[in-house]
Each structure stands twice: as C-alpha cells, then as structure tokens.
Protein 1
Amino acid sequence: MTGLRAWMAAAGMVLTLTAPAMAQEVKVPPESRAQIQQSFAPVVKAVAPAVVNIYTRKTVTVRQRVNPLLDDPFFRQFFGDQFGLNQSVPRERVERALGSGVIIDPDGVIVTNNHVIDGADEITVVLSDRREYPATVVGRDPKTDIGVLRIDTHGRKLEYLEFGDADSLEVGDLVLAIGNPFGLNQTVTSGIVSALARTSVGVADYGFFIQTDAAINPGNSGGALVDMHGRLVGLNSAIYSRGGPSAAGSIGIGFAIPSAMVRAVAHSLLVHGRPVRSWFGASGETVSAEMADSLGLDHPFGAIISDVYANSPAAHAGLEPGDIVLDIDGREVADVAGLRYRLATIPVGSDAKLTVLRRGSHLSLTAKLIEPPETPPRNLTRVGGRTPLSGAEIGNLSPALAEETGMPLGTGGVVITRLERGSVAARLGFRPGDRIDVINGHKVDVVRTAMKLLKGAQGGWRVEILRDGERLAMSVDG
C-alpha cells in the first residue's frame, strides 16, 4: 500500500489531492446465485486491521442542589428558597464516549470525526488486535466534522488504508461499513451506495455526503466506508432517524464524508495544525428550475454567481456576477453546496478549471486558489463605555475571518464577532454576524472608524446593520 506518508514524501509535503486517472471500470450485476453468495471476507481481512476503536473521557462540571429534597417539585413549590435550601454547588462528573477511526499512515496517524473527540481530556485508541495507545490530537475541523489523531507506536508500523476515489462511486455500488457500534468492537456491515452528493443533511458546514444503507449506529462515527477494492471512500459520520441526523437508532440511512474531503482536511491538519482551505472569492446561489428554463438548461444544476470579491482568485480568473458555474475539474456542480465542496477539496496553490455559462455561451476559466488573506487585519476590538455596542467584539471582515467564522464575505466591512451575555449590545438585539454599515450617517469601513463614530457621538446613535441580506436600523438616545 502507498499510504499518506508515502505520497506526502513523494510530494515534498505538498499533497496532490486529485485522484489519479483510471480507466473506467465496467460494473455488472451478479448473474447467478453463486455470484450472490460470494463472501466479503477477503476485503474485510485486508481492511479491518486499519479500523480502530476510540474511547474518550472528559470531566464536566454540573451544579447540584445542596438539599436533594428540592429535586421534588412539591417541596420546591411550598418551601422555595426561604431557608437557603435551594443553593447549588459545582460537582465534577466524568463522561465517557466511544467512536471509531481509520489509520491512514503506518506511523500512527488516524482520522475520525471531530464530534468523537471534541472536548475530550483523554483519548484511548484500541487496535483490532486489542493493543491500546493513548492518542494526541493533531488538529480538528468542526466545519467538516473531521479530526486527526496520532499515536506513538514506538517504531512499529501499522496497517493502514489507502484513499479511494469517492467520485467514482455510483448509486448501487456495494460498500462496507466498519466500526465500533455500541462498543461492539470491529463490527462489519454491508450495503449499497443509496445516493450521492447529499447536501441538506445539516451535520457539517461543508455538507456533501455519501448516503448508504449499510447499518451505521452510535459508535460507528469516524469509522471506514470502503469499496470492494478495500479503499477508503468515506468516513462514516451520521445516521438519520426519526429524531433527525445523529439521533440514536439506525433506520438504514447513513451518511459518510467523501474521501476527497477527508484527505484534504487531513493534509491541512497534519501540515498546518489547523484547517486551511483554498479561497475562491465568490458567492452565489443554486440555479432553480425557473432559472434553468430561462437559461436553456435541460435540468436545474449549477451555481449562479452573485458577488465576486475584488482581487480574489475568482476575479483574476475573469468570473463575473451572473455567470453560472457548471463544473469544476470536469465534475458537475449541482448546487452552491457542491461548488463549496469542490473548491474545498482543491489544495492551496492549485488551479481550479471551471466551465461557466455566460449569456448562452460556455467558457473555460482557470482560477489559481490561494489561502484566505488577512486583508485588512481583523483588529478584533471589544467595545466598552456608554455606547449601544458596549459588550460586543468587532473586527474587520477579512477573507480569513469570514472563512473561520462562516460569515458571508460580501465586500468587507466591520462585523460583530462575539457578544457578552447580558451586555448592552446583546440586550438591544445585536447578533454575532451583524455587519455594521453606517453609524450616524457615516459609512463604516474599518474598526477604527467604528470606534471613532461610537465614542464621538453626541445626543445619541443611529446604527445601521446588514443581517441576512436585510438592512436594519436602530436609534438609541444618548
């Protein structure tokens, strides 16, 4: 196998995340009972040693009443706090959780879900042969729900999985899910790919999931979804139940993060220790059925560009508002979520080749993707004093800050990044993500301007903000 370390070394730590060109594989259904009865055992034997169990432990603080009688609503109703009995004291409680992971490097690099390891004080990795190792967190990416761990094997090489090409999957392909459901070590389930490019699951910001009916249950999170060649095509992340995504109880609808995203995020966390995604510098919306009819498309697909950020890769490539991005690197862009996913899997410094529809003509554009720039510097500043924004933290909305916070970039400006609970700004109804556009009739361009206008106001303030595409105004007397 040529794992992560091998191709990192070959690339000089600059990973080529696009899958190698392969001849189109001819797929045929089983033609006899004998073929249907063939076993998955050879695939399982090859891949199971690279799937691990993950156990986490964290200490949480809860408040507990001094007098347990007041846990009874009857006593609380009649006695309340008249004797000071309703006081509570902090107590520490240990919470334990379990999940799964996949070894992608023989020296002990493991990928899993971020929600498996989030907040853990201790992480233990158990291999298929029951060896146990303490694990350290290399990095986490909550937006994609991916985390990377490392264990010290003292020089002993481990079995690991190669990344497969999730884009080569087709609905109906056989897949295996391997993990640790309900603590039942090394459980294997089989199924088919039920759907591709699921973008409305609501599990992660970069939603673009493989749907499968292979049984996935609590504890499977972070485990492997493999194809019939034993290659990692997805990282099992969530299930759908009557209680919604991630609720307990599998009903045959599971979701896995495609291998291209897993590989891109793992590379970023290993090299930078944090998620670093390529920046495109344009935003848009999904082409609707009505748009498709008017544009002459045979079916609704693509992302229509609404804004192009100045001096961005999109701008340098020649992209314009109104352009419709149809595909990237030959992969169809079904909607805006698909556009974000495709761009997020292309490494910083690489070219994205776009097919664009502009006024009835197809164009080929090339954008060289870069790391989101810190321009202007964010200059995070807490607003104090007697102003309507007292208790808010504001910053210059650079591309880097927009990427980190998930805020729409637009054309820059000053944005509220945090609010102190109970502060003046919070009580007045301001929210994180609000863009401060105008104060007392003066345009706000940077934090310094906002602070000057807030402190220099006489008689009161009129603050205009942009929120979810709407302009809101608030007047406060001085």
Protein 2
Amino acid sequence: MIGKWKTPAFWYDAAAPFAAQKAAALSPLSWLYGFAVRQRFDLYYPVPLARPVICVGNPVAGGAGKTPVVLSLVDLLKDRGYNPHLLTRGYGGSETGPIQVSPGRDTADDVGDEALLLVTKAPTWVSRSRPLGAQAAIDTGANIIVMDDGYQNPSIYKDFSLLVIDGAAGFGNGRLLPAGPLREPLEFGLPRAHAVVMLGEDKTGALDIVRQHTDAPVLSARIVPDADNPDLFGKKVFAFAGIGRPEKFKDSLAAAGAVIEGWGSYPDHCVYTEEDLRELMTAASSAAALVVTTAKDYVRLPDAIKPRVLVFGVHVEWEDPVQLCMLIDEAVAAVHGQLL
C-alpha cells in the first residue's frame, strides 16, 4: 500500500486547477504553521557539541536535492582528512534512535530510504533527537557531523548551515505550508544560512529573493548522471519515481536519450509493494522495455522486484568546490580551532 504524500501541483504551477483558490483557502493554516516554527526557535537553546556540525537543509518541503549535496560533501570532507559521520532523522522509518545504520540489518521501514543511501558513503546515524545522535557519532570517532536536513530544527548548534535551492523550482508560490512549499518564512530562514547552493540554472528568480534577505555566499552546482549508469540512449524505458518532484527524474532520463514509453509517479517516500508496480512491470515486459528508477526508490522496492529494475543515479557537480571547502574550514576554525 502506498503511503506518504505527493507534492501538490498548485505549489509550483499557478496554472494548476484552482491554484489561487487552494492557496488562499489554506493561508490561515500557513499562518499558524509559521507561528509554530518561530515559537519552536524561541523555546529551544541549541546544544553545542565538541565537534563541528554541518547542516544541509532546504527551504521547501521535498525535492530540493539536499541528499545528493550531502553525499558529495562527504567526499570533499574525506579528501581534506576529516572523518565525517552522517546524521538524519530517518524519515519514513520506525527507529527513533540513536542507532547506527547497518545496511545488512536495517531496511527502509526501519531507518528510512535516505539513511540507506547515506550509509553507502559514511557511517550514518538515525536519531529523532539530533543532539543525542550527534553525540553518539562523536563517541564512535567522528570528528565532524553532517546533518541531512534539520535546518528548521533548533535543538543543535550548527557550525555551518548550507541551504539548498532547486534552480528550476525555486520557492514555488512563496507561501508557507500547507498553502505552499515553504518550511519557514524566508525572511527568518535565509539569514541563518552560512552559504546557499543553487542547484542548476535559476529559472524562477529565487536568487533575487535570496539577495534580499542575506549576503551569504551563493555557490553554484548541478545534478549530473553517474558515470556508471546503464546506457539508456535510444532504448525503450518504463520509469517510475516516488520523490519530492518526480518530474526531475523523468527529465534526467530524457536528457540521457531514453525513450520513455511508460511513467509512474508515486508519493514521496512511498513504500512499494509488488501490487503497486505490477501493472507497470507487466506493461514494460510486454513492450520489451527496461524498467528504471532512482537510487532512493530502489531501496524501498520489494526484494522480489529489485533484480528486474535498473538504477539511474545522479550526483552533484560543483562549479567551485574549493570555495565550499574554504568556507567550511573557516567556520570550523572559528569555533573549534584547527582540528586536523
């Protein structure tokens, strides 16, 4: 049975049916949501830790690209001699933690799909309490913590916060949840960023809005296909995705030259069953087409289906990775001195 939710079309498409009316009707709830976010920051005192914490977050709900940014950041930190551990809430999983993720033991039902991707790069911890999870990582040898999400969580002190913006989607209709995709008011959230990363070309004017609220450095990066992806050029493909903005995956496949004969769009973080995918898999078999999905979706597939599905992976390519590393080094040194 499919769970979770799909990104509402009216958040990003003003031409969607009754877009303005839906946003207006939900505005009172957005006001309450924004008030609750501010109150949460007023009530918490961030816990400082003995090792630096880097937070990678996004201003909108779902689909901005923060997890690929985290994965690329791990490589950069390792190249500089750090021993990073990753920290995530484990959205979609049942574990409250702190628990160190074990790929041979844990499933997406236990720790969430993102944790199973993160652990392929570095030791990963799932913890609803970010301070407890970070401390567990430090006790196990981490000399720097990278948080996947948590920008809107005030419980832990962040030495460096990187805010990720999808250049194609920007801030959507600019409204707070549930009337729009914003997780907090921009005038409150943007000034807390130590740096902003624009993923892809800014097609919505989001950069102008960023400049209105912060003078933090803006870094440029883009999502590119992995070098070891299956060759899909000219091949018939049935694809599916259950991520924040599934159309991004569809665009990536088209750019790789795949001939998309069938498409399935599912809710973000959905837990697939064989029944959910039976029609798509049958149609693909009849058409002699390949079945392709994202790495994040693949870890949520039933084991019986995985051998029949290909993964088309992506990663972040930075325009100037040295600038990002220098910003992190400066932030770490300012609070913790020279760690390495």
